[in-house]
Amino acid sequence: MRFFAWLLLAAAPACLIFACAEGTETLPLPGGYTVRVEERPIRLAFFRPDGSLIAESAASDPSPFCVRSASASYEMSFGAFRIREIDETPWQWAERIAMRQTRDDAIEFDVLDATGGRLARGRIGSDRPGEIELLLESLDPAHNRAAFSLAAGPGEHFLGFGGQSFDVDHRGQRIPLWVEEDGIGKREDDEYDDTWFVTGRRHSTHTPMPLYLSSRGHALLLSTFQRSIFDMAAADPETVRIEAWEGSLSLRLFDGPAPAQAIERLTGHLGRPRLPPPFAFAPWLDAMFGSDNVRRVAQKIRERDIPCSAIWTEDWRGGTRSGDNYTLDEDWEIDRALYPDFEGLAAELHSQGYKFLTYHNTFLDSETDTYRQALSAGAPIRDRAGQPYLFTSAKFTPTSMVDLTRAEAFAWTKQKYHEGIAAGADGWMADFAEWLPVDAALASGEDPAAAHNRYPVDFQRLNLEVLDEAGDGVERLFFVRSAYLGSQPLVSVVWAGDQLTDWSLGDGLPSVIPMGIGLGIAGFPYFGHDIGGYTGSIAPPTSRELWFRWVELGAFSPIMRTHHGRAAFANWNWESDEASTAHFRRYASLHARLFPYLYAMAREGAERGLPMLRPLALVYPDFEPGWTATDQYMLGDRLIVAPVITEGAAQRTIALPAGRYFPLLGGEAVALAAAGSIEVAAPLEEIPVLVPAGTLLPLLPEGVETFVPATAGSGIVTLEDIGENRELWLWPGGRGELFEVSGLGYSWVAEELDLPLAAATWNGSPVAIVDGIVDLAGPGTLDIGGKATLILSGGSASRRTRVVLR
Questions:
Q1: CA geometry: angle at 442 spanning 440 and 445, to 5°?
Q2: pLDDT tens digits, 199-243
Q3: Which residue range is the domain that position 778 belongs to?
Q4: Which phi and psi (to 5°) does residue 677 adopt?
Q5: pTM for this one?
Q6: Is the CA virtual torsion 286, 522, 658, 655 positive or negative?
């Protein structure tokens, strides 16, 4: 039977589809899944237990599998790579499959070329229900390219690929995946121009991930540390083509069929991050320029009642001002001119309820004392003559980087990071890790092209080991901008990198949402970004309008963190005027108050691998715009966030599934009988956020200042002081529930509620609801006139909950 007929019969049981085919094998897999293999022409199809199709090989190429030999030239400058293939041989196409062995859990076969010669060996199997692995390995060691093609269904969407800054749905794109600098500004294509070493390309990213989520209800992973290229129906609108720069392919399908379940299976395979400590989900503020200024900022934050649990100080190792710009020094020691009493400063910040975060990377600037220490430790990477490999750094100085494949260098770096902890640091930005040159000579002896994408993973393993080895029970974290496969279980927080301080697509404010969605799909749920942007060399300094909008987006991101930016003395910030201080206080307070909800969503990231910042498609898979929107998202499972990312805009359109929705911060409800869009006002100080009918949302009471313990008697309100007390916002017209990490639980079912409300009872006793508010003590059941029921579970009798009917 011709394979294209499967498209017509995809919903039929697999046994019927293949009833008339010859030269086929059927493989039952765990959980009732099935794989069908047609030997010639080669066709593969993967089915669910109900017989529906998960994915199938493409019929448009001569064959779905091919191999060849090729070489490539690599140029690296400022962490950007110009990669060009040379000496290419023609693709060798597989002609047919010859079965070798069929077992209970796998099919093993040979792949033959047109002459009947053995081209590759293959295996299809499954080690757990809902996961199917396809392995194809060339038998010729000269082959270092392998490709496999899948059918792209009509209207199929493809999300993922890590920190991609233009697109959410990547259909129609050809995506090269290689760890490198994002670039300063971005082209809309992947061509190399005369400024390739500065300007980014559409798909250049710190965090490439060879995986995607399909709207057909599955995820796909290519397991490789080499460069890869995914053609997502770009060359052929009916074909997805996956090319690995090695002589084998290891592909794994993860079924849903619900998109969230596919991500859960994908992240179960990749590994999931640990749940970060609570302070990660309170606002972080940067403070620099020496001990006196850091103290001033810390004091002002408390005086102005701005919630903040972390101060991070990048220039603890020194910094240099040039005009309005400020750049960090690259010595790995405390700058005693700026921070003569660093240890005392750390202790003071701790007493005020702050975590104290610093900065690290793996660069070894040849003009520093650290470099001389590194030479003694054998830490720098080497060139092929055995000398330290030097390149021009972002500071335009001859620089090397740590060879993380050398055990002694790895241990020396950890020891240097431990010195920061001993001085009082509670974590740091673990920056860069994209620059490993492919013509270096590594201590491991391996090909640097194969180690390049792994370098950030090794760096993150180093950072995590440092935290674990501290062994003092202090809550700490590090945050990164680069990552690859294997980073998922190692990383606490990922941030988007160095956005331009402007409104440009691809590298300005609008780039944050696609990056957050792509990273969330790839298994990085704890995402943040530099509020206000960072890079201003080709953009003006952060404007007041841009900063206001970025604060609003930051408040409705998993991690809310400020950055001074490169033009630190010109960029707008929270101290620029009183209105800006008030604006930041308002949104920092809202972000902090959302902690019970955010931490519950964060637990889903640690336990199920689900992103906190997610596309609407994860909650509403049948809503088409939920697969493509680049300007709106969901924070958790019930907040629909539609930030303003266009300069000068004071209103915007929001696409919504059918249903009834309420503005989070008050306003008239809107009802849609069918999926559509609405226009909403969005003045500069406001961000549109909606909740569906029936939502419940637990918040901390107003007034919390930090999630970190402070000195007793200081008057600083901490998370511990709040205890089990909550404010609970409820909307009618549906049902909802949530269980906090602390064990407090909420369950809500409500019809329409009209004020004034009918009689209500709490645990059987009458209670008064005044202006939609009622205060409750302990766990129990609130009944509102037989039209609504709220159940509070867990906690002690001293638990206090203020219920606010919205």
A1: 120
A2: 999 999 999 999 999 999 999 999 999 999 999 999 999 999 999
A3: 723-805
A4: -140, 155
A5: 0.96
A6: positive
